[in-house]
Amino acid sequence: MIELRKLNKYYKVGKQKFHALKDVDLKIEDGEMVAIVGKSGAGKSTLMNIIGLVDTWDSGEYMLDGVQIRKNSDLKLAKLRNEKIGFVLQDFALIEDQSVLFNVSLPLILGKEKMKNIKPKALHALEKVGLADQRSKKANQLSGGQKQRLAIARAIINEPSLILADEPTGALDSKTGIEIIELLAKQNAAGTTVVIITHDKTVSESCGRIIRIADGALV
Amino acid sequence: MKTVKLMMCFFKKNPVLLLFVFLELTISMILFSDQIGELQYQHYSLELYQNSGLAECDHFTSLTVPGLTESPDDTAEAVFEAVRGTDGVEAIGISQSFTGIDTADLDLERELQRKYVVSVLTPSVFGSLPLKLSDGTWQPKETITDSTVNVVACGELAVKHRVGDIISIAFNDNSGTENIMKLKVVGRVAPPGFSVSLNMSSNAFSADNLFSICNCFIAVQTQSNYAVLSMFDPSYDADRGMMIRYKQDLDPASLEQARASLRSWGYLTTPDEIVENTKTLIRRDLNERFPMLMFFLIISSFSMISSVIVTQMKMCSNNAVYYLCGSTARRCFLYSGIPAALVGILALLVNIGRIAYYHINLDFWHYSKPKVLNGTTIAIVAAYFTVTIFIAILASYYVFQKNTPIEIYRKNK
Fold first, then answer.
1. Given pLDDT bands bounded at 50, 70 and 90, which one contains residue B73?
2. In the predicted model, is pLDDT for residue B363 greater than 50?
3. Cβ distance of A109 and B321 shorter than 8 Å
4. What is the mean pLDDT of residues B134-140?
5. How many beta-carbon pairs below 8 A join chains A and B?
6. pLDDT, greater one: B365 or B330
7. B12/A106 Cβ within 8 A
8. In this predicted model, what pLDDT tens digit does every residue of A148-166 receive, in sequence order?
9. pLDDT of A112-144, one tens digit each?
10. How many CB atoms lie within 10 A of CB A23?
11. Contact: B413, A89; criterion CB under 8 Å
12. Which residue does chain B place closest to A55, by CA atoms?
């Protein structure tokens, strides 16, 4: 479960302070599939970065799975990112000159998994997204849809409790986009909490709940 | 293993460039350390020369090449006698050698037989050789009455043999008859393990020409050694040059007359000239060759540092992905900072290994020269590489700080 209480985030813009998130109160239950929608600059990405422990906040509380996330050390935050959160981004965020197998294995390589267990788990994750037969190819040899599926395989390999997807269908055609959302929905059906940032109405309407944000505040 | 896998990503970004830089850096340091070795040798040989009895002797090489004709006057021995007979000359120091085969290998194929060179030096000039011994002595007190020659092991033989070892060798004497002689090791030359060489024929003879790397046994022609060697009469190869000591009571005019007489039929170099020639050589190397090699080395170092910067910039997108997948920013830097240092570390290890084993000489512009490659050379090489590697990591870190994983992630969004 994700719980944000009176969360505030400021950015420095020159000499001035920009209030990016204003007293955000948000609860996302386990197993929900939530869409966050809003205009550009509303604070969607900032909110997702904080939830994903990629960015810090200035005041307020963040609870993840019942544990309060304080301004922990880099090491603890990295461990949480590795074990509890998976990312799916619009630009796929892959290592283009490395193989499909290497890309999907990254969370395991960076985590505590033993070397001998990495390949079987990687192949299992690739099978779930239908890419097992592409394992030897380089990431830059895949199509857009295949790249996004690879990103999803990487996001789920550690069986995280949360998947954060930032415009996962933004760079894809509508048919491929639907396939990607179906994959995410499948993960959600298996019990993973999925949070999607999207401008696409079809995508937001396929989620169980829609959260609107405008000018840094939830509407 | 997992860390190695991630560090390999750094090398895969620019494999050809990094390999080229590694080779360039390694070769430039080999050439540079060789030059340091040559300079060290030049200083070493000058010090040896100046601190020995050889500093009182002239060096001489006749213009006659022994053996060109069948005339009895055209032999090495005739040349030596002619020099001995010159007014004012008290004694000459010559180096002659013969080769024998280890008797244990006589039944083996020729290529498998161990051959030993025995270098015989006249005691009147070489009685107090400047070469330091790691153990043993040049002239043991006891007299050996059987057919044993006391020898000092030099070069590789000093490593293989111990004081007290007796080696039996077979060789042909002047009549072509095969003989067996025993050599007893009474001393071992200390590293760098040079031996005396008089083969250089030059009108600019210098102290560094006096020594050479030689895997041989040195036998000073003491009374007991002389007795044994005379008995066997081996077929010698004599070095063309010789050291000349003049009579102690010779007045300056007579000395100059003797020198003028010798100069008329050979190259003569006086002790002052030997010292001056050596110093000129050192100055020339310091002013010409050394700066050129230093320049090449610095250029190679800059190549390495710039290639590290370029590769680090290529690694920025990787770092953002590692960060998302659960790496800290510091770890992201380690996966590229350590490989950046590895290029330099590998080049350093190659150089240290080479200096330690002294296998490869990449002196392309000259024939192989004696060098002193020792702890000082390793220290200089290690110090230089440490500074270069440090600058490379610093440069890599600077690029990383300008493009942290979180910033790249935000930029890409």
1. low
2. no
3. no
4. 83
5. 70
6. B330
7. no
8. 999 999 999 999 999 999 9
9. 889 899 999 999 999 999 999 999 999 999 999
10. 15
11. yes
12. B406
Cβ within 8 Å, pair A98-B9: yes
Residue-wise pLDDT tens digits, A52-93: 998 888 889 999 888 888 766 788 889 999 999 999 998 899
A110 in reach of chain B (CB within 8 A): yes
ipTM of the complex: 0.92
| Residues of chain B found within 8 Å of residue A74, distances taken between Cβ atoms | 328-330
B386 Cα to chain A: minimum distance (Å) = 30
Residues of B in contact with A89 (CB under 8 A): 324, 412-413
- Domain encompassing residue A196: 2-218
CB contact (8 A) between residue A54 and residue B5: no
Q: Does A81 touch chain B (CB under 8 A)?
A: yes
Nearest to B12 among A89, A90, A97 (CB): A97
Residue B360 has pLDDT above 50, yes or no: no
| Helix, coil or strand: residue A53 | coil
Q: Which chain A residues have a beta carbon less than 8 Å from that of B13?
A: 97
pTM, whole model, 2 decimals?
0.75
Which A residues in the span 14-43 are in contact with B, Cβ-Cβ below 8 Å?
none
For chain A, the domain total comes to 1
| Cβ–Cβ below 8 Å for B327 and A110 | yes
Q: Which residue type does B319 have?
A: N
Q: What is the CATH number of the domain that holds A61?
A: 3.40.50.300
Dihedral sign for Cα atoms in the order B15, B16, B17, B19: positive
Check A94 against B326: CB less than 8 A apart. Answer: no
Asked whether A61 and A35 are in contact (CB, 8 A), the reply is: no
The pairing of beta strand B178-189 with beta strand B166-172: antiparallel
